[in-house]
Each structure stands twice: as C-alpha cells, then as structure tokens.
Specification:
The complex is a heterodimer of chains A (295) and B (401).
Chain A lengths: L8 H32 L6 H19 L3 H22 L9 H23 L15 E3 L4 E3 H23 L1 H11 L1 H6 L4 H23 L9 H16 L4 H21 L7 H12 L10
Antiparallel strand pairs in A: 1-2
Chain B lengths: L1 H21 L5 E7 L10 H14 L3 E2 L2 E9 L4 H14 L4 E4 L3 H14 L2 E4 L16 E3 L4 H14 L4 E7 L2 H16 L3 E8 L7 H9 L4 E5 L2 H13 L8 E4 L4 H7 L1 H4 L3 E4 L7 H13 L7 H20 L4 H10 L11 E2 L5 E2 L2 E6 L12 E7 L1 H4 L13
Parallel strand pairs in B: 1-3, 1-4, 4-5, 5-6, 7-8, 7-9, 9-10
Antiparallel strand pairs in B: 2-3, 11-14, 12-13, 14-15
The chains are: A mainly alpha (295), B alpha/beta (401).
C-alpha cells in the first residue's frame, strides 16, 4: 500500500468520509443562512441558537411527550419555523429599511438570550439523546467503521440541500422569490404578496437550522452551547461561498468539511482555524466569495 | 475561680478586639472565579460559589470579628480575563483570597498575580501540576486533585490490569498537555507504552476523526486527557463508532460526576475514573451533599465544588486562629494545621502548596446497579494520599528545600 505523507490510505479515506459528514452539517446550516441573507438581506446570527433549539425540542419531545426521533424530525423544524416567523413578524420586519448591522445586532442579542435561557434551565453539560433503533449499529467499510446514523445524516442533508437549491433556482415559486429580492415593489405590483413570502422564507431558513439540530442531537450532546461552537464556522462557510449564494453554501460547506477532515490528520492542532485561513485567502482574492456576485 | 474566669474573658475580649483591628478594611473578601457560562460551568460555576457560601455560613458569615463577603466572576476560560479580574479584585476591591479557578491556563495567570500581590489562592478547579511545581507560590494551595493524581489513579489501575499500550487524546492547552505528560510518565514507569497522541482544540464537538486515529493505533486503552464537554462528546462518539465494543478500553483521565450525569449511565457505564470526592461515601458527605443539592437545583456536588468548600473553610479557620487576614501569617497557619472536614481526613499541606488527601478509584455503575438519582459510582479502592500525589521533593517547586 502507498502512503500519503506517511498516512496510510485507509486512514485518509476514513478522515475524508468523516469530513463529508461534518461538511453535511455545515452545508445544511449555511444553506439556511444563505437563503435568509439572499432573500431578506439579514445576517441571521440567531441561526446557531435556533439549531440548538431544534435539538432541544427533539430532546423535550422524547423526554416530556415520549415522541421519538422520527416525530422530532418533522415536528422540531416546524416548532423552530414558528419561532422564526414570530421573530420575523414582531422584530426583524421593522429593520429591513435600516443597515445590515441592525439585523445582525438584533439576531446576535436574540441568540444570547436563547442560549442564556436554556443554560439557566438545563446547564451546560448537555443532555443525552439516543440514536433511533432503526439506525443503530454500523457498516464495516474495510477502511473504517461507519455508524449507520452518520451515513443517514449525509444522505438526509444532501437530499434537503438539493431540494432547496432546486426549489429556489428551478421552480416558479423560487423565481418569484428571487424576483422579489431584486425589486419587491415591481413584484408586488404583479399581485404577489411579498411580505408574506419574506416571512415564509425566514421561517423556512430557520427550519433548516432546526432540522440540522435534530440530526445533530444523537451525535453531540444536546447542549445550550452547541450552536455557538458551530455558528462561527458556518458564517465563514457562507462568506467563502459568497453571501446569499445557495449553491455556494452547499458546495463550500461540503468542501470545507473535507478540508477540515484532512487537517485533523496532518496537523490536528490547526483544525479549528483552517476554515478561517481559507476565508482570509478567499476574501483577499475574491471579496464576493467563490460563488458570489459583486453587487 | 470566678476571678480567673473573668480574667480569661477579659483577655479573650482584648484579643478579639485586637484581631478585629487586624483584618484589613474590616472585611474578609473571598473571590470565587471560574467558568460560569462555558463548558466547565457545571463542574464548577455557581456550584463552587454555593460551596464557598456554605463554608462562610458555618462561621456565621463572620470571622475574626469581621464580616465575610463572597464575590464571583466568570473568567470565560480565558487567561487574560482571569488575570485582569484578579488584578482588579486585589487592587480595587480588596479581595483577600481567590478561590477555585478551573482551567489551568487561567489558574497559572492568577497564581502569578496572587504571588506578586501576596494574596492567598485556593485552587480547586485547575489540574496542572505546574501550579505546585515550577510555578508554585507560597500563597497558592492546590486542593482537590491534580493531573498527577488522575494519572496515578486511573493509569495505574488500568496498566495493572495488563492494559499496557496507550493512545492519548489530548485537549490542546496547558491542562491537557500536563495531563498527557503525567499519564505518559506513569504508563512508562509501570512498563507500558504510549503508541501515539493527538491534540484537539478546546471545545471540539466532533471527535470522530481523533477517535479513528486512536482506533487505528490498536492501543489497549484510549486515554482522554480532556475535561467537561470535550470528554462527554468523546465518550459518546466512541460508543457510536464501536470502539468500546471492539475491545479497546476508554479511560476518562479527568471525569467529573457532572459529566457522568450528562452522558447518562447507558453511555458511561464501566468507565474507570479517579476522584477526590463522592457524595455517597459516608454520613458526613451525605449530609453536606444533601444541603448542597437543595441549594444547587438538585445537582450533586462535583469534587471541585466540594473542594472549594473545604479550602475556604480551612482558610477561614486559619484567619480565625491568627486573628488576621495577613497572607503570610494565614498561609503559615494553614500549612501547620491538618485539614479535617467532610472532604478530607487528616489532610496535610506540603511545602509546595499541595494538599495531600486520600483519592478514590471509582467505576461508573450500570443502569441496573444505580438505585437513585446521582447514584453513579462504585468506589473500587482508596488511594492513600502519599501514593496519590507526587512527592513535593520531585515537584520542581523552588519552595521545597
């Protein structure tokens, strides 16, 4: 067998696969951010907190109502979407005419409040959430042991990512949405209710975060801090991909997951900064991001 | 008879009056500094402040005629914030003693300041042996555990079971490095070997990559030289990737009861760990813990929180005895007095500031064995203080002659 820089290929394949799994989470979260930024021009800093709420709703459904993983997969994003719609209607919608900075500050504040509230009631150590029976166990791929659940995460997130991309870029509804961001007044003149569409978009974007939360619950501890740990990386992903670019968010999310996986083999200490190094380089060379358009 | 009694009372009154005058600013101020919002908030956090208050209450919130005041601060696991807070406490707020400070990087920063400003530093949270080694201070006391004790307890137990080939997953900062170092030394000293190590950033959520590297090493034991949320995520994911099922043992080199609670017994069962305290050991620990749990939302004390109580209590006893909050006099008194409370029996403070007390090797119970909430540990054996901790002569501390 040939080694790559002293690393056996089995190890390398294993790490690449793991990178793909982490990349799926990045893709799913950055997709929601990109949709929200693209359509609403809001930098949604509460995304991580809503991801955390998605996981907590799953945990509460299981422990308070006895509803298992598959119920949570449907209900939890719905709950998060409702929370999102309320936020948009009562607060965010007042800020659209102002600078981006106000939306960022508001959502950042909301994120701190959500996290603080959950920390107060549940502590920081987190709560255990079991892997659903159907997805227990794993496959021996020869070069590594792949838990079934992780395989499921990749498949689920790829389906959702592709579905979202298709809905926005290839359907009539998506065309309305894109038109509404370009020129809301004109689109409204054609008889389309733009404010409702924007609210729905925000609800959908945060529902994606909620879904990612449910997918993450059995892998990580369901903890109030889980969103903070991830959100900064996800922001970097969106910036690298190009703010508001749907395809950019998906491709960059997966790509950076892979890159991080490789870093963990060759120089693990740097695994939490490699994404930001890439971000700095991309911003220097292509300020609008890899897939973004100059505005 | 009556006369001598009167004389005695008068003498007492005089000394009490004198003592009163000896406490600067007429208040003994205890600053409990730790992580109150991040990954170590459950193992220390507000619980440590509660423990300090319980110690103060035992003295009626008054010592040597002066009231006891307890202030708290969040160092957010950042050494610079810890250093700034300590400076402000000492310079502007007249804090007499800093307590707890988990996170060795933060504790090393505070140790430097308390040493320079002559303030007592009661360390319950941090694990680095440097704090009583090359960075020791005449005013610094490391109370609850240290990385040597963790390595000596857990590593020795496993190596003696014949598990000699180790792989260590380390948190990449002062504490993790020190724990990795102590474990490596102990494993080698007992005839084992360390096949490899990998270092991960503090606050990692996905451990699968590091665990696969550990798995590929074919080591008998995967030692986790990290703490708090990092350890729980690693243990949880190790069972997901079938590591424990395939015959490799997992050893949490620093595992707190709050971590075991977060993992749930299903995932944590069978783990071996070393601890300085367990609430369900005897009537005394049970009584104290019951009181603590009432104040702490039903959560049992971790060894760090129990250690804060013991350290603050010992400090206050010394202040009472010398009738002053002068750091030199109090430190001398603390060193010469044995520690006897619900936490430690006949504990002794070494010349390097290490408090020597018995440690316990414990194993996490299975869900079937656990009869009540927080009924998590079987105490496998008691590790006598002299065996549990490093001999001060070998600590590298300049105070040891």
């Amino acid at each position: 067998m040939f080694d790559v820089l002293g690393v056996p290929p089995q190890v390398l394949f294993g790490q690449l696969l793991l990178g793909l799994i982490n990349g799926s989470f990045y893709a799913l979260l950055s997709l929601g951010l990109a949709v929200i930024f693209g359509m609403l021009n809001v930098i949604n800093f509460a995304h991580g907190a809503l991801y955390m709420i998605g996981a907590f709703v799953a945990w509460l459904l299981l422990n308070k109502l006895g509803l298992g993983y598959w119920w949570a997969l449907g209900l939890s994003p719905l709950v998060v979407a409702v929370v999102g719609v309320l936020l948009e209607k009562t607060m965010l919608s007042r800020l659209y005419k102002l600078d981006h900075l106000y939306g960022l500050l508001l959502t950042f504040g909301l994120a701190l409040i959500f996290e603080g509230a959950f920390r107060h009631f549940y502590g920081v150590s987190g709560q255990p959430y079991p892997i659903p029976d159907l997805l227990k166990g794993g496959q021996n791929l020869g070069f590594m042991f792949l838990p079934n659940y992780r395989g499921w995460v990749v498949v689920a997130s790829l389906i959702v990512c592709f579905g979202t991309w298709f809905a926005i870029e290839r359907t009539r509804l998506g065309a309305y949405l894109r038109a509404a961001t370009e020129n809301p007044v004109l689109v409204q003149a054609f008889g389309i209710n733009v404010p409702v569409m924007i609210t729905a978009t925000y609800g959908f974007g945060v529902a994606l975060a909620g879904l990612a939360g449910v997918l993450a619950a059995p892998i990580y501890q369901v903890s109030p801090l889980m969103g903070t740990n991830l959100i900064i990386v996800v922001f970097a992903v969106v910036v690298i991909g190009g703010m508001g670019s749907i395809l950019g968010a998906i491709v960059t999310g997966l790509g950076l997951g892979l890159l991080e996986g490789l870093t963990k083999v060759f120089y693990p200490e740097a695994s939490n900064i490699v994404v930001f190094v890439v971000m700095a380089i991309v911003l220097l060379i292509k300020p609008a991001g890899l897939f973004g358009r100059e505005r | 008879m009556l006369k001598s009694l009167l004389c005695g009372t008068a003498l007492l009154a005089v000394t009490a009056g004198a003592a009163h005058a000896q406490v600067t600013n007429n208040v003994v101020k205890i600053g409990v500094m730790n992580d109150r919002s991040g990954i170590y908030a459950d193992l220390a956090g507000e619980g440590s402040a509660i423990a300090a208050r319980m110690a103060a209450e035992e003295f009626g919130n008054k010592v040597a005629g002066a009231p006891i005041e307890i202030v708290v601060a969040d160092h957010q696991n950042k050494a610079d914030i810890a250093a700034n807070t300590a400076r402000e406490w000492v310079d502007a707020q007249n804090v007499d003693v800093v307590a707890d400070v988990p996170n060795s990087a933060a504790a090393l920063a505070v140790q430097g300041i308390t040493k320079e400003k002559k303030r007592i530093f009661l360390m319950s949270g941090p694990g680095s042996t440097d704090l009583t080694g090359k960075a020791c201070s005449p005013y610094g006391f490391q109370w609850t555990y240290d990385n040597y004790a963790m390595a000596a307890g857990t590593a020795r137990a496993l190596v003696e079971q014949g598990k000699k080939n180790w792989f260590i997953v380390t948190a990449d900062y002062a504490f993790g490095h020190s724990l990795e170092d102590e474990t490596t030394k102990m494993v080698k000293q007992l005839g084992g070997k360390v096949a490899g190590t990998v270092r991960h950033p503090l606050g990692t959520s996905d451990f699968s990559s590091f665990l696969l590297q550990a798995q590929a090493s074919k080591a008998d034991v995967i030692g986790l030289a990290n703490a708090g949320g990092d350890t729980t995520n690693a243990v949880k994911q190790a069972s997901e990737f079938g590591i424990t099922q395939s015959g490799q043992s997992l050893a949490g080199l620093l595992l707190f009861i709050s971590d075991v609670n977060a993992l749930g017994l299903q995932a944590a069962q069978g783990l071996m760990l070393t601890t300085g305290f367990y609430h369900d050991m005897n009537d005394e620990t049970r009584a104290w813990s019951k009181k603590f749990m009432e104040k702490n939302g039903g959560k049992a004390p971790t060894m760090v929180q129990a250690g804060v109580y013991s350290a603050v209590r010992h400090y206050l006893k010394a202040v009472e005895a010398v009738g002053s909050d002068d750091a030199d006099k109090v430190a001398a008194k603390m060193r010469e007095t044995p520690v006897n409370d619900m936490f430690a029996k006949d504990g002794k403070i070494g010349p390097n500031g290490r408090m020597f007390h018995d440690m316990y090797l414990a194993q996490v119970k299975t869900p079937a064995e656990s009869k009540a909430a927080w009924d998590y540990y079987k105490i496998v054996k008691t590790i006598p203080a002299q065996q549990a901790y490093l001999d001060p002569a070998q600590s590298g501390c300049s105070l040891v002659k």
